[in-house]
Recover the amino acids of this structure.
């Protein structure tokens, strides 16, 4: 195994060699999972199933933001023979070695950084890993810059152990131009795929690059499965609410939505249940006393689904239910499963996310809550329950087919492995 040290930098000053890769034997799947994070954990499940059902990967190893939790989640889901990388060898741990200032990006302790890279490389090589897959989500961007070193780390490790390296369904927005050196390294992956047009547009010189694609969100592959594991069929319809308190004021919205007037209008459509679901840690999990009293007085029942139950059983779903969510993947999964609803946002980050779901075919209205009047919200919901078409089947099929083609490309290895970095300068910016 080649070990990276500062003295190894001239390793990159070599002629590029392109060789067809061997069939995958063991794969590392990297994602923002274990938080909990229902959307990205759904994507993880989709890819695990794809790898297990293909003949291309004998061993699957997962890496996430909290691998102790991730181990628990994988066990909850009943997966067998899925390994989780130790927390101290997680690629998410690389963020602590990087600092940012007006003068640029720097490695704080090069010796420890390269020692960590070598330790992770040895662990993965001992596991027989010859394929590294950084799957989708919105965790590689300037909002979560502490995750960006995963790009450089995975490239170094991939070159160390001669593995294929690709990234799928990435949401790179927002992006700060000062962080462009990371994009230069990302462009050197064997495959880089993004989920929205804004993310594609930040990639430098991407036009005509065969290793770059734009195929939408990885979760679309869920709908290739014979059974949709991300939803749980219910016997009666409900008003299903998933509103967050991070980057959004979900608690405030509950009081505006759950009024006697609004609930009466919703009840006239045959809905008399409210389900509060939690996809991540900061989602609203309980109603306050006043809200619970209004629910009771209007003849509604209320129930709660925590993140563990949501992961295990899926989103409570009935074809006549109505969904209100600020969460991107709740919007995506519910809409493309045939559910009706509204999506809300309060910032550009989530605006881009929700409108990217509409690009993939969702017909849900998407609202900026700052400009929204909730006074007649119940009647608006009642109208949508009767008249809304959840998604455009032709548009969705277009994106679903693109994602299936990407998966086929990955599993049949229809690309060439770049054993040496094309973008030598970009890597040296980090390594020197």
């Amino acid at each position: 195994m080649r070990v990276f040290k500062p003295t190894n930098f001239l390793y990159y000053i070599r002629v590029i060699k392109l060789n067809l890769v061997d069939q995958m034997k063991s794969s590392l799947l990297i994602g923002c999972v274990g938080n909990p994070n229902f959307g990205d954990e759904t994507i993880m499940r989709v890819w695990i199933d794809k790898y297990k059902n293909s003949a291309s990967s004998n061993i699957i190893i997962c890496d996430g933001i909290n691998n102790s939790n991730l181990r628990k989640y994988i066990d909850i889901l009943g997966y067998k023979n899925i390994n989780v990388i130790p927390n101290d060898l997680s690629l998410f741990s690389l963020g602590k070695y990087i600092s940012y200032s007006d003068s640029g990006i720097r490695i704080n302790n090069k010796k420890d950084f390269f020692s960590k890279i070598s330790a992770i490389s040895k662990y993965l090589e001992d596991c027989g890993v010859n394929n590294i897959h950084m799957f989708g989500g919105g965790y590689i961007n300037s909002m979560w810059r502490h995750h960006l070193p995963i790009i450089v780390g995975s490239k170094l490790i991939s070159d160390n152990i001669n593995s294929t390296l690709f990234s799928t369904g990435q949401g790179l927005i927002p992006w700060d131009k000062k962080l462009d050196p990371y994009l230069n390294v990302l462009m050197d992956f064997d495959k880089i795929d993004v989920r929205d047009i804004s993310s594609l547009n930040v990639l430098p010189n991407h036009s005509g690059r065969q290793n770059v694609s734009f195929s939408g969100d990885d979760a679309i592959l869920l709908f290739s499965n014979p059974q949709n594991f991300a939803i749980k069929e219910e016997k009666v319809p409900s008003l299903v609410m998933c509103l967050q308190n991070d980057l959004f004021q979900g608690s405030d919205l509950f009081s505006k939505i759950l009024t006697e007037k609004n609930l009466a209008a919703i009840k006239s459509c045959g809905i008399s249940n409210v389900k509060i679901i939690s996809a991540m840690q900061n989602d609203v999990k309980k109603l306050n006393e006043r809200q619970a009293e209004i629910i009771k007085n209007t003849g509604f029942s209320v129930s709660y689904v925590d993140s563990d139950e949501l992961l295990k059983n899926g989103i409570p779903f009935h074809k006549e239910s109505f969904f209100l969510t600020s969460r991107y993947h709740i919007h995506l999964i519910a809409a493309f499963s045939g559910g009706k609803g509204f999506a809300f946002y309060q910032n550009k980050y989530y605006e881009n996310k929700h409108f990217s779901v509409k690009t993939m075919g969702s017909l849900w209205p998407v609202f900026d809550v700052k400009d929204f009047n909730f006074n007649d919200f119940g009647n608006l919901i009642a109208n949508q329950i009767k008249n809304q078409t959840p998604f455009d089947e032709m548009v969705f099929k277009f994106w679903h087919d693109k994602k299936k083609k990407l998966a086929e490309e990955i599993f049949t290895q229809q690309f060439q492995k770049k054993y040496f970095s094309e973008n030598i300068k970009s890597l040296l910016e980090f390594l020197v």
Remarks:
- The radius of gyration is 23 Å.
- The CA atoms of residues 36 and 280 lie 5 Å apart.
- The mean pLDDT is 90.
